[in-house]
Amino acid sequence: MSTQEREEGRQIRCLIAKVGLDGHDRGAHVISRAFRDAGFEVIYSGLHRAPDEIVQAAVQEDVDVLGISILSGAHNTLIPKIVSGLQEYDAFEDTLILVGGIVPDDDREELLDMGVAAVFGPGTPMADTIEFVRENVHDRE
Amino acid sequence: MSDAASTEPDLVAELLDGKHRALARVITKIENRSPGYRDIVSRLHAHTGTADVIGITGSPGAGKSTLVDKLAKTYRDRGDTVGVIAVDPSSPYTGGAVLGDRIRMASNVGDMDVFFRSMSARGTLGGLSTATADAVKALDAFGKDTVIIETVGAGQNEVDIVKTADTVCVLVQPGSGDDVQMLKAGILEIGDVFVVNKADMDGAERTVAELEEMIHMRENPAAGLHTGHHGPVDDEEMARVAVDEPDAEAWDPEVVQTVATSGEGVDALIDTLGAHAAWLRESGRIDDKARGRYAEEIRQLVRADTAALLEEVIDARGGIDALADEVLTKETDPYSVADELVAPVRDCVDEELR
């Protein structure tokens, strides 16, 4: 990407969020770094965020991508709260929601039905995730 | 979001109506220089001018983000709404960035009346993004009482913040250099308020004393020559030997001590920032500042627009590489090429003005 394009073109903005009581953020750091190196602007939420805080950050930062890292198994309670919060601010439709972490197969379908675009489990190659973001980020113009 | 022409007027109306999503989207358009952003900013202009704009700068790790968090919280406690723009560096290689200032905003979670926006510097130097000034306008028009801009961790010469903020607050850490550092030009010249953060650390008192000496010399260049050999000299005598006439109405930069992690000193800092804002209004300097800022902004826009027009001319003549090749083979020289390229513009200007 040339400097010109970077200055005038669309820059993909991502929020990498750690939500709930799970304190493992190595994965979130790795993905933040990889997204940065892919040329994205990454906002990292920090640990132990409540769903409300994630919604506030996603709305104010106007991110294209919301990547939620959950390793605690609490995705079925936390993700719906985030989704409905985004809906409240009209921010759900054009935000690409990704979930990363440990999600049992049975829960995947449910998350996808809820509006999550993809669930990435352990071992997903970084390049696949980046490729997925580039191809699926919502067109906003 | 399909038809730009029909959605953008709504976006401005929604922003003025207090819709957070619209404010966020407007700032994105400003950052991306998206089609229509100029129209948006010009429509916002009439609604600006009510916010106090405060710039916070200082070296990396001085505690800017933590202090901004506490400032925002204290302003909120006083009943003011707050907008924050925090600028972080971007990678010169990929354009990517990790914007980490938001993590420190722990005191304001869940409070939507603190609108916090992270920005990447997107390759610009000077500690600010080119879009920062326009983003400030968006927050101002939205109705924020106070807008705080946090710069990229600045070195000695990142002084762009003076062009955008009404009040510049420079953060200094205890023990950040001897008194020669204080003599250097650059960041220490731009502060309206100096904050010695981490004031509970060793050496804070000395840093405060050095800053005060520096400020005193700034307003009275003879002050530093006072060695004590000639006994105490009163201020009046000092003023007489000063090179410049001291301006009775001038703002005396103040040094404030804070401990951002605990919030100590933040109230006093806000009072000082408020005193500076009041002084700007009472002395009329606020208009001088705004005038200078708009003049610079007009110049920048005119330069950028004419540059874009001339790029078209360059393309029409076969592109910059072809022109450079002609110079390389000594067919022509850079000055002649430039004359030739600018000729159509010059003709129009002649036509228009004479």
Count of alpha and pi helical runs of chain A: 6
* SSE topology string of chain A: HEHEHEHEHEH
Secondary-structure element string of chain B: HHHEHEEEHEHEEHHEHHHH
Q: Give the biggest beta sheet of chain B.
A: 7 strands, parallel
Quaternary structure: heterodimer
Question: How far is the N terminus from the C terminus of chain A?
Answer: 20 Å
CATH superfamily of the largest domain in chain B: P-loop containing nucleotide triphosphate hydrolases
CATH class of chain A: Alpha Beta
Strand segment count of chain A: 5
> In terms of per-residue confidence, which ranges of chain A show pLDDT below 50 for 5 or more consecutive residues?
1-8
Q: Give the CA-CA distance, first to last residue of chain B.
A: 46 Å
Number of domains of chain A: 1
Domain AAA+ ATPase (chain B): 50-292
Keywords (chain B): Chaperone, GTP-binding, Hydrolase, Nucleotide-binding
Protein name (chain B): Methylmalonyl Co-A mutase-associated GTPase MeaB
GO molecular function (chain B): GTP binding; hydrolase activity
SSE topology:
The complex is a heterodimer of chains A (141) and B (354).
Chain A: H1 3-8, E1 13-18, H2 26-37, E2 41-44, H3 51-61, E3 65-70, H4 75-88, E4 96-101, H5 105-114, E5 118-120, H6 126-136
Parallel strand pairs in A: 1-2, 1-3, 3-4, 4-5
Helix pairs in contact in A: 3-4, 4-5
Chain B: H1 4-16, H2 20-32, H3 37-45, E1 52-58, H4 64-77, E2 82-88, E3 97-99, E4 114-120, H5 132-142, E5 146-150, H6 161-164, E6 167-172, E7 193-196, H7 204-219, H8 235-241, E8 254-257, H9 266-283, H10 285-316, H11 320-328, H12 334-353
Parallel strand pairs in B: 1-5, 1-6, 2-4, 2-5, 6-7, 7-8
Helix pairs in contact in B: 1-2, 2-5
